[in-house]
Amino acid sequence: MSADAALAGPESAILTAAIFRWTQALACLCTAWSGCGYAADAPAVPLQAPVATGERLSDWIHRVAGPLADTTALHWRAQAQRGPQTLLQQAVLEGFRADAGLTLSRQERDEFQAWLLALPVTGRVTVALADERWLQGSPQADPVLGERQSVVLYPRPRHVAVLTVAAHVCLVPHRAGAHVADYLRACPGDLASTVDWAWIAQPDGRTRRFGVAAWNEQAQDQPAPGAWIWAPPHSARVPDSLSDNLAE
Questions:
Q1: Maximum Cα–Cα distance across the chain
Q2: Taking the complete model, does pTM exceed 0.85, yes or no?
Q3: Are 43 and 28 in contact (CB under 8 A)?
Q4: Cα–Cα distance between 2 and 11 in angstroms, integer?
Q5: What domain range is 167 assigned to?
Q6: How many structural domains does the chain have?
Q7: DSSP string spanning 75-98?
Q8: Could you tell me if 92 and 113 are in contact, meaning their C-beta atoms sit under 8 angstroms apart?
Q9: What is the phi/psi pair of residue 235, to 5°?
Q10: Alpha helices in the chain (DSSP H)
Q11: Would strands 73-78 and 169-173 be described as parallel, antiparallel, or unpaired?
């Protein structure tokens, strides 16, 4: 569904301005963390080529990108996955619309729903490890490509995106060794002191939840370049199940 369609209805006047300020952030997140934050003189142009039915993903990488390609932001997409992903998106939308426990205002809920509706469902499928050599040595994990499937390789991202319950996306330059709290502190406001749990969606599509407050801090994976972080404040009372679905 397009952003214009999402805004149809009496609330459109409230949300139109919000959609405008999300446009650049959506350009990053709509491609599932493809190439956020590239400098203006280095556009994130994806590498694409039709798949040959029956070829392995490792073959596609070798044929199209070459053996030395950086496959951090490789996307394998299947039309068959779009239906289940659409249902998941609808479950998140319904949660933000109807959950009585959320302490968000009606406008905040509407803005977040509009943001979600503007995101396309791509049918992306998780790959165990998008490395040509590793896939060749692990044929059980090397997908056989078929009809109604596609592969897109985006340039290596340079930023990590932090998403808030206000539907604001804060892009922070990736830094080796940095953890969730570091990225929260780099964004406007006092996010780090308001968040107990954070969800990391890595550029390979994997998601995990970590405790990030002083009382529940856990050893955690470092966000990779192109990851995004969902960090709802504890005061918003967002159910874990809703956050799990959103991160997926």
A1: 56
A2: no
A3: no
A4: 16
A5: 3-247
A6: 1
A7: EEEEGGGHHHHHHHHHHHHHHHHH
A8: no
A9: -65, -20
A10: 3-6, 12-29, 57-60, 82-98, 106-117, 132-137, 180-185, 240-247
A11: unpaired
